[in-house]
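Exercise 7. Given the encoded structure of a 335-residue chain, write a plausible sequence.
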């Protein structure tokens, strides 16, 4: 029997299949109780610290509302207004917060080679669980909700199902790489055929590509990289087109400190995105997938750029069910 008590949740790769199954079963049970209006107060008087280095709507509220519903309390911490901005180390910050509460949840996702390292540094120094609310490598609370949502549609046996994880155009900001990386590493563990599509230069972190290949070989699934959204969508059961930043520029963010340098990097990322405005999920592309295919996106989506309103508001879209499942999976992880 899997037992996750006290364990960190930093990447889905760190968990066994049995542990992931326990989280999914717990999320399903908590969801049913939520919809029946039954209390789920299994963490009375406990405190979770939510430390954000980036913005959030879904994740923050899933964890805050979730902790309330579990009988505890979540503190929101904006890293910019803590002593982290004066250089306090992750180990010292973790020791302090860990001595005052029961878990530390962190979002630190905008710079390659920073967030995951920060979380693991803190994890090495604390006695309470660290939960990754999105880093530069993985967004494991998002992908667990995605897996739950896909299983609600297609059943628990996903062997042979195809998911298209595609880059899509966005003019708003250079989005982190962690969602596609998390998807290719997690979905390949369940025998799915994972097709990753992106324009040149939008490659993902190498170790996540290697993990996806190894997971696919072990599960009987497959993993391929193609250079067009159309190719990835062909006969897919699930399509998951979303934007992320160009790799070299996301890597170049390391060490940038002045607002001007960060602004210049953002502008350069968006200029590159502009070269690929035809990477949009529209009705024509949806027709390339299976007739019962579902459209997914972690949100927020750039409407009219990543996806047309017709698709995201259409009958194949399950994005709001997917977003609701962020609550149930966040509660399962904390519970
Ligand atoms: N999908 C997701 O993580 O949303 P937020 O950035 O709003 O938390």
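Solution.
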């Amino acid at each position: 029997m899997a037992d996750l008590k006290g364990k960190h949740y930093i990447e889905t790769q760190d968990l066994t299949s049995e542990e992931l199954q326990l989280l999914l079963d717990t999320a399903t049970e908590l969801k049913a109780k939520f919809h029946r209006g039954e209390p789920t107060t299994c963490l009375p008087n406990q405190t979770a610290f939510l430390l954000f280095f980036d913005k959030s709507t879904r994740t923050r509220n899933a964890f805050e509302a979730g902790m309330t519903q579990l009988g505890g309390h979540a503190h929101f911490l904006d890293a910019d207004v803590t002593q982290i901005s004066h250089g306090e180390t992750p180990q010292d910050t973790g020791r302090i917060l860990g001595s005052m509460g029961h878990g530390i949840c962190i979002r630190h996702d905008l710079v390659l080679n920073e967030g995951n390292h920060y979380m693991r540094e803190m994890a090495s120094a604390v006695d309470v669980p660290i939960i990754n609310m999105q880093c530069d490598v993985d967004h494991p609370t998002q992908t667990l909700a995605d897996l739950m949502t896909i299983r609600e549609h297609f059943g628990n046996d996903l062997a042979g199902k195809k998911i298209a994880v595609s880059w899509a155009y966005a003019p708003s900001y250079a989005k982190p790489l962690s969602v596609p990386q998390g998807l290719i590493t997690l979905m390949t563990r369940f025998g799915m055929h994972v097709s990753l599509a992106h324009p040149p230069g939008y490659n993902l972190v190498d170790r996540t590509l290697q993990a996806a290949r190894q997971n696919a070989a072990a599960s009987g699934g497959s993993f391929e990289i193609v250079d067009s959204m159309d190719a990835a969508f062909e006969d897919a059961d699930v399509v998951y087109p979303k934007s992320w930043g160009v790799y070299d520029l996301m890597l170049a963010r390391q060490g940038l400190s002045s607002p001007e340098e960060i602004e210049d990097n953002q502008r350069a990322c968006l200029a590159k995105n502009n070269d690929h405005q035809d990477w949009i999920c529209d009705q024509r592309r949806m027709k390339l997938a299976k007739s019962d295919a579902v459209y997914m996106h972690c949100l927020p989506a750039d409407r009219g750029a990543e996806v047309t309103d017709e698709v995201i508001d259409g009958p194949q879209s399950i994005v709001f069910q997917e977003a609701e499942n962020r609550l149930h999976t966040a509660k399962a992880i904390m519970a």
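Remark. The first strand starts at residue 47 and ends at 52. Students should compare their own answers with the one above.
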